[in-house]
TrEMBL record:
Record key words, sorted: Cell membrane, Membrane, Transmembrane, Transmembrane helix
The keyword Transcription is assigned to this record: no
InterPro entries to which the protein is assigned, alphabetical: Double_Cache_2 (IPR004010), sCache_2 (IPR033480)
Domain of life: Archaea
Protein name according to UniProt: Cache domain-containing protein
Cellular compartments annotated: Cell membrane
Annotated organism of origin: Methanococcoides vulcani
Length: 176
């Protein structure tokens, strides 16, 4: 009798296992995988667009110097639209172009920190002074016109004109 109870218990465990396993449908898994692939594709596309815009802005700076800066501030233009903008710092951390809030231009932002205290000012400077002279940094920053921070990825690269070295960058926010 005890053997029969053991067999019944084992069978019940198998039945419960298959019932629970049946709740996780292959379609659900495939849907999740598809969503992850689409998210990765969108991230790659945004990274490609952002870095290309920074490279184009650097070309303009290297051709025109500070004469290029007003173009970066033109709302709804190539360089400043929606929550996209090009920013420019001197390599000593002085912000020279900041389209979302031009009152912040001229400030020393070398010790700038993100919402969580990440030292992004020093990270930007160190990145452009490093071996590659460019790179991506992620941090939490409010979108233009908002106060709550969102995750942001920023591409920065050094540029030079007339013995002045600049940090040129732009980023994008992850969708919530």
């Amino acid at each position: 009798m005890i053997e029969l109870k053991k067999v019944i218990c084992v069978l019940l465990i198998f039945v419960l296992f298959f019932v629970v396993a049946g709740c996780v449908q292959p379609e659900d898994i495939a849907e999740d995988e598809k969503g992850l692939v689409e998210e990765q594709d969108q991230l790659a596309s945004q990274r490609e667009f952002t870095s290309a815009q920074v490279y184009s802005a650097i070309e303009l700076i290297e051709e025109e110097g500070e004469q290029a800066f007003p173009q970066f501030r033109e709302k709804n233009g190539q360089w400043f639209h929606d929550d996209f903008y090009i920013f420019v710092w001197r390599n000593d951390g002085i912000r020279v172009v900041y389209p979302p809030d031009i009152s912040g231009e001229g400030q020393d932002v070398s010790n700038l920190e993100d919402f969580n205290g990440k030292p992004i000012g020093q990270m930007f400077i160190n990145m452009t002074q490093g071996e590659e002279g460019e790179g991506w940094i992620d941090y939490y920053w409010p979108r233009p016109g908002e106060t709550e921070p969102s995750k942001k990825y920023t591409f920065i690269k050094g540029a030079s004109f007339d013995n002045q070295t600049y940090i040129v960058g732009s980023g994008f926010y992850l969708e919530d």
